[in-house]
Amino acid sequence: MPLTLATDGAHHIPAALDDATLAIIETALATLPIDRPGQRLTSLAALTPLLAASGTIGRHPAAHLGNAARPVRAILFDKSEAANWALGWHQDRTIAVRQKIDTPGFGPWTIKSGIQHVAPPQSLLDQMLTLRLHLDSVEANNAPLLIAPGTHRHGRIAESDIARHVANHGRYACLADRGDIWLYATPILHASDAARTPRHRRVLQLDYSADALSGGLEWLGV
Length: 222
What we know:
This protein is of the alpha+beta class. The chain has one domain (5-26, 36-209): Jelly Rolls (Sandwich), CATH 2.60.120. The protein is 17% helix and 28% strand. The strands form 3 sheets. Strands 1-11-8-13-3-2 form a 6-stranded antiparallel sheet. A hairpin with a 2-residue loop joins strand 6 and strand 7.
């Protein structure tokens, strides 16, 4: 049976992006280097109408988070022969913000690609969704995202408990065709192997939230 967001923490949306939408996305990303494993993007103004809650892309998270849903972080991933990495099982635990302001419940702080990141309260992460927009097809031999269905319901999982949760919940490979979207609960345990047959596997990953930050903190946004 297909995975559901409510039960499994992930949902596959086939053919969510038509040719015109894919062309807009690819044009917006055309000037970026193609030999880096992951690039944190600070501005995608050309995509703003698509990413809004009423847009072709934004309507999918808005269906679950409400019309206040907005994109708060973007990362472009591309595995290829030049950049073919593996990533162990983990949870996404940080958010990108405009500037560092010491705020109760937020920390520790890190800087990634020159961008301030901070670990927020788990309750905020639990209300976030992540979208993966597939600009290329992803088959089993081309390093699909691996998730452990249902692990989004366990809150923050200690590093020492990750292997046990993956063993209990199993692993699911998120295969995709060009134009598909995978939508998942941001805290879900996930991983990625190196591609057995490496070729371009472009994925635009977007985090969405409908919540405001406290203490004067501001989302970096997209």
